[in-house]
Design brief:
DUF6146; signal; mainly alpha; 2 strands; 134 residues; Lipoprotein
């Protein structure tokens, strides 16, 4: 159930993205109760991760700025393609880990923070649930 909430939050955040205008991301990071929220003023896109243990796990990872935005975007696109394929593929679709497709467009500039957080969520997801997203 906790996976469903986290993944649904990611999916809803990317579905709310506006492709017509890209605005600079102003982050509001709230690292409390294992909830992380990244948003901009106009809420064109927002990413919220509700996953027990994620905030303490991400604190042990490479710092912001270690990866380039281009690197994160390329990795996220690969992860999203694999993830979305598993949403509709048996036996993955029956596990409950892949409840809904993620709407992530490689041509949209989501900003560094969103890409950083999404990338690390995918790493956490793979480690926590013993999944390989390639």
């Amino acid at each position: 159930m906790r996976n469903l909430v986290a993944i649904l939050s990611i999916v809803l955040a990317f579905m709310a993205c506006s492709t017509s205008s890209v605005k600079k991301l102003e982050s509001s990071n709230n690292y409390s109760n294992d909830t992380i929220r990244i948003a901009n003023d106009s809420l064109n896109y927002e990413l919220i991760v509700f996953e027990p243990g994620f905030s303490s796990w991400i604190a042990t990872q490479k710092p912001r700025g270690f990866y380039s935005q281009n690197y994160l975007e390329q990795k996220n696109w690969r992860f999203v393609v694999t993830y979305n394929n598993r949403v509709v593929s048996y036996p993955y679709s029956t596990t409950g880990l892949y409840p809904q497709k993620i709407d992530y467009e490689p041509t949209v500039n989501y900003g560094y923070e969103v890409n950083y957080l999404l990338y690390h969520y995918f790493l956490f997801f793979q480690e926590e649930y013993n999944q390989k997203l390639r």
